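Thanks for the sequence, V.! I ran MazG nucleotide pyrophosphohydrolase domain protein right away. Repeating your input here for the record:
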Amino acid sequence: MDDTQTTLADLRELVRQFVDERDWQQFHSPKNLAMALAVEAAELMEHFQWVDLPESRKVTSDEEKLTAIGEELADVLSYTLALANSLGIDIATAHRRKMVLNAEKYPADEFRGRFGGKNSQAD
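Predicted structure:
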């Protein structure tokens, strides 16, 4: 099933089942999950370290690199979902609320085609 056929609830349940089957809830404190998420985000960043912007966009034509990046992105998502499960946060609601705040902070008419500064993308 791809993105068009899978809900966030489906993915959360998949993570919950994975954690439950291994009895890992005992290790999944918000602190531990946030730290693991940061580690996985760093592993994702490693794929782009020391390359310029044009080169970073070329990964789409390298299936092996794209697969590895997809695996790291999946790890980031898995820990994000595990943290949401642990804290009882509805990600869709939190994301929609944040996008409204971002739209207010960075109005399209003012920021179209230009960088908004520090943390301008969904900070």
